[in-house]
Amino acid sequence: MSDYLKALRERKRTLKIQQERHDAQLEALEERARQIVEDAKAQAQAERDQILADAKGDPGEDGDVGPMPKHQWKGTRLRFEDGERDHWGKWVDLKGQPGPPGPPGRPGSGANLASLPLLNAPPEDGDTMIVEREGKLYRVTIQNLKDTFGEAIPIDAIYAGGDPVMADDEYVRATD
Predict the structure, then answer these.
(1) How far apart are the C-alpha atoms of 57 and 54, rounded to whole Å?
(2) Are residues 92 and 79 in contact, defined by beta-carbon separation less than 8 angstroms?
(3) What DSSP string runs through 3-33?
(4) Percent helix, strand and coil across the chain, each rounded to 5?
(5) Can you list the alpha helix ranges (DSSP code H) found in the chain?
(6) Exposure string for 60-73, b = 16+ CB within 10 A, e = fewer
(7) What is the pLDDT of residues 121-132, one digit of tens each?
(8) From residue 115, how far is each of 16, 97, 102, 105, 110 by CA, in Å?
(9) Burial class, 169, CB count within 10 angstroms (exposed 0-12 / middle 13-18 / buried 19+)
(10) 3-state secondary structure of 44
(11) pLDDT digits (tens, 9 = 90+) for 23-72
């Protein structure tokens, strides 16, 4: 019986060694499979990125400016229609903080311009303005300004980014 037990023990030891070899081979195969999957994912991502890069063409031309959105002014506050008919967004006050005081002005020429009444209407072609250049006063007509600079911008024109806003070739004007 002891020979039989020895043979069984030897067989058990041999099977254990074979099992350990198979486990090691299986682990190596599983690791290789994981690596193949990771490599395939990386290659697919690289190919996808290349396809997307190749699909992008040169930027197109800018389109036409769309229509002016419906808006309302109340003093320095502005609001826009938000896409639904008769449904308006919140009022936004566009008045900024006062800036710092400017430098003192130059001495006057003796003419009391402050005593002249202000014109409470847009200037017309035949009107004359006073312009100061290098300490001297000159008369300039509105027509002369138009000839030099183009059509006059209305006093109550709305500005955005330092430029007057236009819609349908007309200046957008503030209303209360």
Answers:
(1) 8
(2) yes
(3) HHHHHHHHHHHHHHHHHHHHHHHHHHHHHHH
(4) 35, 20, 45
(5) 2-55, 142-149
(6) eeeeeeeeeeeeeb
(7) 777 777 888 777
(8) 114, 29, 22, 17, 12
(9) exposed
(10) helix
(11) 889 898 899 989 998 999 999 999 888 888 777 777 788 888 888 888 88
